Amino acid sequence: MNPVKLGKLLLLDLGIVALNVVIFSKALLGTFLGNPIYTPLAILLGLVSVIAFFYFNIKVLFLDKNQPRQVGTSMSDGATFEKYRDTISKFIDGEGFLFDDNLKILLSQLDTLEEKGLAIRKSLGERFSPSELTYGKFVTAVENVEEFMLKNAKGIVQRVQGFDERGYEKAVSDINTSPEVLDERRAILDEYSKYVKHSVDMGDKVLASLDKLQLEISKISTLDEKAGQSKEAVSDLDDIISDIKYYKDGLDKL
After folding, report:
1. pTM
2. Domain spans of the chain?
3. How far are the Cα atoms of 89, 103, 142, 150, 181 from residue 84, in angstroms, in the given order?
4. CA nearest neighbour of 102 among 56, 155, 33, 63
């Protein structure tokens, strides 16, 4: 579970307990129990707090974790890994073929990303408590990588979908197409191709950073050793954070 959510849930539970102590403790407002106005109000507040307690605890502990992970708030389409894979696969199976090789690499990157994300979270859960700051820092970094990779994939898909491949093929195959038009068409294809290739290369570099982080986490074999062995992992984590910022800046400029 996300440690931030866990912390918020803990604060909420403590607040509900504190509210009930204030309402029903005879050392506090409980002295007014028996009052015809205060008593019904106290009972109502108590019932509401109990309902809120069970609702939010069940929602966070049992329901939220069964929902598919979605892209971060910077992306409004709510797309999941599966939706991206479906979209890319359909495009590869369609009529076009100019970008298929890079799209297949992108598809593989998303599969790898999801597998690594699950593996790293499992490794962290075996070595750290979810309440530890180190655990939260690692998980946040992984989520940032996932968000970046999905944003990167979204940019590639949108760019590829915007290219008129049928029009390009028609112009190239038509012997009546002027050299000027051909040069213009080829220049446009070259710009699209450079964007797609650059974005795919960025994805490979980010996944390589995640590989290194996973390796260092795997070296933390016991809780007794984690203080010393986690230094390398933290160093790799800082590198990933720096890389993501660099690649995000580069993505925004494309």
Report:
1. 0.58
2. 3-65, 73-253
3. 8, 11, 18, 8, 34
4. 155
